[in-house]
């Protein structure tokens, strides 16, 4: 009883902190304002250059001669691996079950504005990256906040982010994901959580031994396949409920601004709750503004920061506008959202089962949770490791990997009631210093982005021409490598 009382008290405390951080008076307006401000300063780069960015990242892949440790595509899939996770399935269901269908609208807004934030942080990640003690490329908010913002403010923001990222890597990137994998395999295939924990310990440990090179190779092959399988299942469900799609869109847009009245087991929600859940779960899903993806972007082989920034920007588009939309539409069109927030964990599986059949639908969702969570662990292991190196030195790399791998087993074999709330708080703590930094550095991002896109609007310039452009514009970036 004492343990239960302590856990309940701790949960209440964390809930209070979570509600404050993600309130409509603090992080939500900061996120939306930063994304809107960067969208204006960059002249809507996420809309103007989306097609060019998708082509450059998935078709051209022509920056192999640039400095860096992994290809642009591997950096993109590593970031996708970290973001396309349980939040795309359980997180979306939770947002809709509490905030109503209108929460999906605010997830879209967060994603569209977040593309400008994701571009900016990836640009800065490459722009201020350095070579570490082992000759590997290192960058991210822990670098560009301290180097781009002079004085004590920059150093404080960098340390704030670094410590928050280390903590977050064990929450959003480990405990919640390991628990989701174990629960999925146990519910669908009756695999013991202990067995799952051991298998994940071995598999994750083997990949992490190879560092970012191994992570990039695994995610580049693994991530596209898992997304395609999930989207295929979702498309089948939507085809089966095609007649409900127009009404679903109408409900989403209407509820975003009017709220939802109580229906069956669903708790009524107003516009503030819809916005709060949409934005909070939106950033949990796509991580735009958190600064995490900038760490992977910094390792990419690229000939200019703008080119990698545009490629990284497509990650938010794929995560939110494609995968999250699929989950949300499946939940709304099948009507399972009315079951209420107590059923959020199984809501997406119920929606897939409604359209495909209980056997295939539940299996696809369960396997997707397993694969998405596994990939998220890989991506976040790299984010946490780089942050640990920044905080404690290069020697911290191996100890961090060892501890991170051991915590995976704990997450798989332990019922963690506080994990999701803890992950939400850690996300917010990471976002705060990064968003402040993006606002301060927005002028630099806007100037150098305009200069480069005026020179190379279709990203077709050759490395030698880019080198001449950097010299002519007196840009110090290239001289670092």
Automatic annotation (TrEMBL):
The keyword Plastid does not apply. Belongs to the alanine or glycine:cation symporter (AGCS) (TC 2.A.25) family. This is Sodium:alanine symporter family protein. The chain crosses the membrane at residues 20-40, 156-176, 188-209, 221-242, 262-284, 317-340, 360-380, 392-412, 418-441. Pfam families: Na_Ala_symp (PF01235). Keywords: Cell membrane, Membrane, Symport, Transmembrane, Transmembrane helix, Transport. It comes from the Bacteria. Its main location: membrane. PANTHER family: AGSS FAMILY TRANSPORTER, SODIUM-ALANINE, TRANSCRIPTIONAL REGULATOR, LRP FAMILY. It is a multi-pass membrane protein. It is found in: Cell membrane. InterPro entries: Na/Ala_symport (IPR001463). The keyword RNA-binding does not apply. Coiled coil: none annotated. It comes from Corynebacterium pseudodiphtheriticum.
């Amino acid at each position: 009883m004492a343990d239960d009382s302590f856990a309940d008290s701790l949960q209440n405390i964390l809930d209070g902190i979570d509600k404050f951080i993600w309130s409509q008076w603090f992080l939500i307006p900061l996120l939306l304002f930063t994304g809107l401000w960067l969208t204006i300063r960059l002249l809507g780069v996420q809309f103007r250059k989306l097609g060019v960015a998708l082509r450059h990242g998935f078709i051209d892949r022509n920056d192999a001669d640039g400095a860096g440790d992994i290809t642009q595509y591997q950096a993109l899939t590593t970031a996708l691996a970290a973001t396309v996770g349980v939040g795309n399935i359980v997180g979306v269901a939770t947002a809709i079950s509490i905030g109503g269908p209108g929460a999906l609208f605010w997830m879209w807004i967060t994603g569209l504005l977040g593309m400008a934030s994701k571009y900016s942080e990836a640009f800065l990640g490459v722009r201020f990256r350095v070579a570490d003690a082992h000759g590997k490329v290192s960058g991210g908010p822990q670098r560009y906040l301290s180097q781009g913002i002079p004085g004590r403010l920059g150093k404080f923001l960098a340390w704030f982010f670094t410590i928050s990222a280390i903590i977050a890597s064990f929450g959003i990137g480990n405990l919640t994901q390991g628990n989701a994998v174990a629960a999925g395999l146990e519910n669908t295939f009756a695999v013991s959580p202990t067995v799952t924990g051991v298998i994940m310990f071995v598999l994750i440990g083997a990949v992490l031994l190879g560092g970012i090179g191994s992570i990039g190779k695994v995610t580049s092959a693994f991530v596209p396949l898992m997304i395609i399988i999930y989207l295929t299942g979702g498309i089948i469900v939507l085809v089966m409920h095609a007649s409900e799609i127009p009404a679903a869109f109408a409900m989403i847009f209407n509820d975003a601004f009017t709220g939802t009245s109580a229906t069956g087991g669903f708790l009524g929600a107003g516009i503030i709750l819809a916005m709060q859940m949409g934005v909070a779960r939106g950033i949990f899903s796509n991580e735009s503004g958190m600064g995490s993806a900038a760490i992977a972007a910094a390792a990419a082989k690229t000939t200019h920061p703008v080119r990698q920034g545009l490629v990284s920007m497509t990650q938010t588009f794929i995560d939110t506008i494609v995968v999250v939309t699929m989950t949300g539409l499946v939940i709304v069109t099948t009507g399972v959202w009315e079951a209420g927030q107590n059923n959020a964990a199984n809501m997406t599986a119920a929606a897939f089962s409604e359209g495909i059949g209980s056997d295939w639908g539940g299996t696809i969702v369960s396997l997707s949770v397993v694969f998405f969570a596994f990939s998220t662990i890989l991506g976040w292991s790299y984010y946490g490791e780089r942050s640990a190196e920044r905080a404690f030195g290069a020697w911290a790399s191996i100890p961090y990997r060892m501890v991170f791998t051991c915590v995976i087993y704990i997450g798989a074999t332990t019922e963690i009631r506080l994990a999701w709330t803890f992950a939400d708080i850690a996300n917010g703590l990471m976002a705060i210093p990064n968003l402040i930094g993006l606002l301060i550095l927005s002028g630099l991002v806007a100037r150098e982005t305009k200069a480069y896109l005026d020179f190379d609007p279709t990203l077709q310039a050759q490395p030698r021409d880019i080198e001449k452009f950097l010299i002519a514009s007196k840009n110090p970036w290239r001289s670092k490598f």
